[in-house]
Amino acid sequence: MATYPIAFPPQSPAQESLRVAFQQAVMESPHTFAQQTVSNADHWVLEFVWPRMSHGDADRVAAWLDSLKGQIGTFTYTPRNAYRSALTGRTLALAAYSYSDTVSVGGWASNSPSDLFLGQYCQIGERLHRITSAPANADASGRCLIEVVPQVRKTQNAGTAVEFVKPKGTFRLTTADSYAYTLDTDRQPSFPTINAKEAL
């Protein structure tokens, strides 16, 4: 029996769409049209397509998909990124509280370049995040105040590792139906678009 989450297959997707879905509501005054927004939660939505592959590889991928047993199983996924980070040894300098989108990360030399960039992925605890705001340099204490999406889901203690080199998130399929490949006109296996969402 599989122990979840399981690792993603070695075959890299040919296309990938990873976006944050927000649970929000907007209320508008019928008199002044002034708007008030409420944001309750957010999570990752993942869509990907595998390239054409050999029959052997396709059978292994199909077996991997079947091992998820629809929406029961979960898998880990590291997003593709044109720029890879070499930052290691970074931890939360302060506790990151649930439903906060700002975290304090330590591990830099005083006032040194942060080597952080907008759109960069990181992993805090078991959750994948994307940086939306970061300083160019650490402060005098070697800390960087970083804004991320999605929000921190559950409180993470100070000292929790922050992974920049190979961050990953945990996902589950959005359907209970199994994904199967079809044979294209050249008799080569072809999978449909796979849809998944963050497992919370």
Describe what you observe in this structure.
A hairpin with a 2-residue loop joins strand 6 (121-124) and strand 7 (127-133). This protein has two domains: 1-78 and 170-200, Phosphorylase Kinase, domain 1 (2-Layer Sandwich); 81-167, Beta Barrel (Elongation Factor Tu (Ef-tu), domain 3), CATH 2.40.30. The strands form three sheets. The protein has a six-stranded antiparallel beta barrel. Strands 1-2-13-10-3 form a five-stranded antiparallel sheet, with no helix packed on it. The protein has one helix at 55-67; strands at residues 15-28, 35-49, 75-77, 90-92, 102-106, 121-124, 127-133, 143-149, 161-163, 169-173, 182-183, 189-190, 194-198. It has 200 residues and is mainly beta.
Which terms summarize this structure?
Elongation Factor Tu (Ef-tu), domain 3, mainly beta, 1 helix, single chain, Phosphorylase Kinase, domain 1, globular, 200 residues
What's the average pLDDT? 92
The largest sheet is:
6 strands, antiparallel, barrel
The number of helical runs is 1
Q: Strand order within the widest sheet?
A: 4-5-8-7-6-9
What's the CATH class label of the largest domain? Alpha Beta
**Which fold name is given in CATH as the topology of the largest domain?**
Phosphorylase Kinase, domain 1
Helicity range of the residues?
under 10%
- By CATH, the architecture of the largest domain is named 2-Layer Sandwich
